[in-house]
Amino acid sequence: MSVAFRRDSDEEHLEPKFEMPIAPGPNLVTPRGLALIGEQVDAIEAAIEAETDDQALVVLKRDLRYWHTRQTTAELAAAPEAGEAGIGSSVRVRMNGAERTIAIVGGDEAEPGADRLAFSSPLARALIGAMAGERVAFNGRDDAIEILEIA
């Protein structure tokens, strides 16, 4: 019989399961971000205890490996100097005539839709180190962003 007609199991036709990717570089976090990672670990551990489906357990255990890694590699970011934008800062800016307030946070804490940007994002990198009253370059323009206030 031809090998083309042989099928040992359904497993050989499934997509491979890869580990969740971890961003390169340091895992800098805010105190809130560290607490969120801990909550995520606790939630997944509770879900594993309650889960009975083997495939769901595989996914949950993969997720737990990711969050355990993030928890063990987390480094609390040093507080920025007073009046200077940094990780943990809330920065009120004016861009393209519109004001918005951006929180600079760790990668796992980021929610771009809620203006919580990872410190590694291009906009956050442009803001880090800036002081209130300054204008900073972004997206090819030298004075694209006006820093209004830093908290």
UniProtKB/TrEMBL annotation:
Signal peptide: none annotated. The lineage of its organism: Bacteria, Pseudomonadati, Pseudomonadota, Alphaproteobacteria, Sphingomonadales. Keywords: Kinase, Transferase. Residues 83-150 form the Transcription elongation factor GreA/GreB C-terminal domain. GO terms for molecular function: DNA binding; kinase activity. This is Nucleoside-diphosphate kinase. One of its GO terms (biological process) is regulation of DNA-templated transcription elongation. InterPro entries: GreA/GreB_C_sf, Tscrpt_elong_fac_GreA/B_C. It holds the Pfam family GreA_GreB. It comes from the Bacteria.
